[in-house]
Amino acid sequence: MSNPSPFARRGAPLTVPQGDVLGTYDSYPEAQKVVDRLAKADFPIAKLAIVGNNLTSVEIVTRKRSWNRAALSGILSGAWLGLFIGLLLSFLSPTFTWQLFAAAVFIGAAFGLFLQLAGYAVSRRNRDFESIAQVLAANYQIILEPGQLARAQELLARNP
Questions:
Q1: The model's pTM
Q2: What are the residue boundaries of the structural domains of the chain, listed by start?
Q3: pLDDT tens digits for 36-60?
């Protein structure tokens, strides 16, 4: 049996929700605040959706990758793992010593160094930089199930 409405919550919607537009906002946090206000006013928020329009993928290059950066990153992440394992072992073993703790940190750092350098060696030819990727929308619309618009507008007017 198919869902009669894209607002039916049985699974992921297969279509973009259609309905009445409560408002159009320049940023997601603005739309989120409106939905939060409606939720606090006991509006059935399962009957609305925030739809991002005109999506754009933005990738900001943060820095060049190098052997030195890969080594430092591996040592630090491995040392954190070793620190965690050392603390865990110190709580579980009554005969645990500081030398064993230091060894756990050192082994973790060596393990992290090896894994990071191996990963860098494999991916080096394909991607020699680090970046942050994000999908942004030109605007965000709050779409309501048909017949809910007047109630939502009334609740927003009463609860600024």
A1: 0.58
A2: 1-58+136-160, 66-126
A3: 999 998 898 888 999 999 999 999 9
